[in-house]
Design a protein that fits this description.
Blueprint: E1 2-8, E2 12-19, E3 25-32, E4 45-46, H1 48-66, E5 73-80, E6 86-88, E7 98-99, H2 107-116, H3 120-127, H4 136-146, H5 148-153, E8 156-158, H6 160-169, E9 174-175, H7 176-179, E10 185-186, E11 191-192, H8 194-200, E12 211-212, E13 219-220, H9 223-229, E14 236-237, E15 241-242, H10 243-250, E16 258-263, E17 267-271, E18 285-288, E19 294-300, H11 304-314, H12 318-326, E20 336-338, E21 355-357, H13 366-390, E22 397-401, H14 408-418, E23 422-425, H15 430-446, H16 453-458, E24 463-468, H17 472-502
Parallel strand pairs: 1-5, 5-14, 5-15, 9-12, 16-22, 22-23
Antiparallel strand pairs: 1-2, 2-3, 4-7, 6-8, 10-11, 13-14, 16-17, 17-19, 18-19, 20-21, 23-24
C-alpha cells in the first residue's frame, strides 16, 4: 500500500508517493502556480483553479516516477499555504480569486477588527493570539467593504488546503490547525469566536465550516475525481493542514522538546505543545497544530533572501558563499547586520531597513560582511526564540529544513546562537511528507486501531547525518552579540519611523 502527500504552496505544488509501511519516498512530482498580474500594491492573489490543475499534474508525475500502481494508493493528505481566503457561493463555485497569506491590502480591515474587539490586548485575551495583517479574517472584511456584490454571494469560507479537500471529496471542512490562522478561532477552547465572526459580519459564523479534530478524515475521494487521477475507489483523504502544521508532522515535531526551524526566504521556528501556548504580547503566533495539540510559531521575514543578495553582489554560488563566510571568525569581529531587507514581522518593524553596524578597516571586506549577514539572520531568530523560551519552551533538539539547512556552516551558527543541537532530515519536503504521514495516521484510526501520530512519525521520520552541536565558547560570544543586536534595533526604531515618513509610506 502507498500514501500520497501534497504540498500546495505559493509558487507551486509538490507531490510525494510514500511507502505506507516504511515511509520511504518512492516518487516525486512538481507543478508551478501563476500569480495574478497587474494587481494594486500590496495585493497578492491566485486563481484556485490553478491549484487543482497543479495538484493533478504533480500527482501524476509522482506516480509515474514511483512506478507503483495508483490503484494501491489508500490515503492522501494535503498541506496548503496558510491564511488564504477562498470564497465559495451556494453552488460551491469560487466567487473571485483567493487573497493569499502575503496580501497586505487589508491593513485597515485588520485594525478595524482589532479595535472593535477592544484593542490588541483584548483581542489576545479573547482569542489567544494576535491578528496579523495576513490572516483570513481581515480578507473577509475586505471583500465585504470593497466588493459588496461578491460578498452577498458568499456562502462558504475555505482556506487553500480545505479547497483542495473540497475538490477531492465534495465536503467543506476545517480542522483546528489551519483554522487557528484565520484570526476567527478561540485557540484555547478550539471553537470559532462568535464575537470575532460577528465583528466581520453578523452572518459570518454560518458561513464557516464546522471545526473537527485533525485525526478525523475529510472523507474519501469522489469517484469521478479518482478516475481522473487513475486512483482506486476508496482513497482516504485526511484532514490536512497548513504548511507549518504539516511541516511539524513531517519533521517528527509532534511531542514536547522537538522544534523545527525552516531556513528559507523567510524563517520560522515552531514547536509542539500539549496545552495552549499564548504570548500576551502577540509576537509569537499561537497556532494549533494538525494533530490535536498546539504549535506556537515564530516567523521572521529575512533569511535566504539576504544571502541571495550577497551571492549576487560577489558573484558566488552556495559553496563559494560558505567558503567566503568561513574566512571570517565567529562573531565577525563585532560586525553586526540587521537583516530587515524586506521589513520585519518579529520584531514588529514592517517598514524597517537592513543595517550594517561596526564597519571598520578590519571588517569592511567580503568575508566579514558575508558572515555578518548569515549570523544576522539567526540572531534575528534568536530574539524570538528567547521569547518562546521565556514563555515555556524547553527545546531539546531543533530539526532544520529549507535552503539554509543545506549549509553546514549555517547549521553550526544556528546551534551556537540558539544554544540547542540542530539536525537535518532525510526527507526535506517536510510539508508534503507530513501530509502523507497524517493520512497514514488517519487510515489506521479509521480502521479502529489505537495509533498515535507519534507512533507514525517515530518509525518513519529519519534524521540525516548532518548535525551541529552548540560550542560553549561560541555560544557565549553570540549571547553577547545577541544583546547588542537587540539593543541596536530598539535604538533604531525612531530612525526607521523617520525613514518611513520620508519615503511616503507613513
Amino acid at each position: 500500500m502507498y500514501a500520497v502527500g501534497i504540498d500546495s504552496g505559493t509558487q507551486g505544488t509538490k507531490a510525494l508517493v510514500v511507502d505506507f509501511e516504511t515511509g520511504k519516498v518512492l516518487g516525486r512530482g512538481r507543478a508551478t502556480h501563476d500569480m495574478i498580474p497587474g494587481l494594486p500594491p500590496g495585493a497578492s492573489e491566485q486563481d484556485p483553479k490553478t491549484w487543482i490543475a497543479a495538484m493533478h499534474a504533480a500527482l501524476a508525475a509522482a506516480i509515474a516516477e514511483s512506478g507503483v500502481s495508483p490503484k494501491k494508493i489508500v490515503s492522501l493528505g494535503i498541506s496548503g499555504q496558510q491564511h488564504g481566503f477562498v470564497p465559495l457561493d451556494a453552488g460551491g463555485r469560487v466567487i473571485r480569486p483567493a487573497k493569499l497569506w502575503n496580501d497586505t491590502s487589508t491593513i485597515e480591515e485588520t485594525d478595524a477588527i482589532v479595535n472593535a474587539m477592544g484593542g490588541p490586548k483584548e483581542y489576545i485575551r479573547k482569542l489567544g493570539l494576535s491578528l496579523a495583517v495576513g490572516f483570513t479574517a481581515s480578507k473577509i472584511l475586505w471583500l465585504k467593504r470593497h466588493e459588496p456584490e461578491n460578498f452577498k454571494k458568499l456562502a462558504t469560507v475555505l482556506l487553500p488546503h480545505n479547497f483542495l479537500n473540497y475538490h477531492l471529496t465534495g465536503r467543506a471542512h476545517m480542522e483546528y490547525g489551519d483554522a487557528s490562522g484565520t484570526g476567527l478561532m478561540d485557540i484555547r477552547n478550539l471553537k470559532w469566536s462568535e464575537e470575532a465572526a460577528a465583528v466581520v459580519d453578523q452572518a459570518l459564523l454560518g458561513r464557516l465550516p464546522a471545526l473537527s479534530h485533525p485525526g478525523e478524515p475529510v472523507g474519501t475521494i469522489d469517484k469521478t475525481v479518482a478516475a481522473r487521477l487513475g486512483l482506486g475507489g476508496k482513497v482516504l483523504v485526511s484532514a490536512g493542514g497548513g504548511d507549518n502544521m504539516m511541516g511539524a508532522i513531517g519533521t517528527g515535531n509532534v511531542a514536547p522538546g522537538v522544534s523545527t526551524v525552516s531556513l528559507g526566504t523567510s524563517g520560522t521556528i515552531y514547536s509542539y505543545f500539549d496545552k495552549a501556548f499564548v504570548d500576551p504580547e502577540g509576537e509569537i503566533a499561537a497556532f494549533c497544530d494538525s494533530t490535536g495539540g498546539w504549535l506556537p510559531l515564530l516567523c521572521t521575514m529575512n533569511v535566504t533572501n539576504t544571502t541571495e543578495i550577497v551571492k549576487s553582489l560577489f558573484l558566488l554560488n552556495n559553496r563559494a558563499l560558505d567558503s567566503l563566510v568561513a574566512k571570517a571568525p565567529a562573531g565577525s569581529d563585532g560586525l553586526l547586520f540587521l537583516p530587515f531587507v524586506d521589513g520585519e514581522r518579529v520584531p514588529v518593524l514592517p517598514f524597517s531597513s537592513a543595517v550594517f553596524f561596526g564597519l571598520n578597516r578590519k571588517t569592511f571586506d567580503g568575508a566579514h560582511m558575508a558572515r555578518a549577514v548569515m549570523e544576522g539572520t539567526i540572531l534575528n531568530l534568536g530574539y524570538g526564540f528567547a521569547r518562546m523560551r521565556a514563555l515555556g519552551l524547553e527545546p531539546g533538539e531543533i530539526r532544520a529544513t529549507g535552503g539554509g539547512a543545506k549549509s553546514k556552516l549555517w547549521l553550526q551558527i544556528t546551534a551556537d546562537v540558539l544554544r540547542t543541537p540542530v539536525v537535518t532530515l532525510r526527507e526535506q519536503e517536510a510539508a508534503a511528507y507530513g501530509g502523507a504521514l497524517q493520512s497514514i495516521w488517519c487510515w489506521h484510526l479509521e480502521k479502529g486501531e489505537k495509533v498515535g501520530i507519534r507512533d507514525i512519525t517515530e518509525s518513519r521520520v529519519a534524521l540525516d547525518k548532518a548535525a551541529a552541536s552548540p560550542d560553549p565558547k561560541r555560544s557565549a560570544l553570540y549571547e553577547e552579540l545577541q544583546d547588542r543586536f537587540n539593543s541596536l534595533w530598539k535604538r533604531l526604531v525612531p530612525e526607521f519611523k523617520a525613514q518611513q515618513k520620508l519615503s511616503g509610506r507613513a
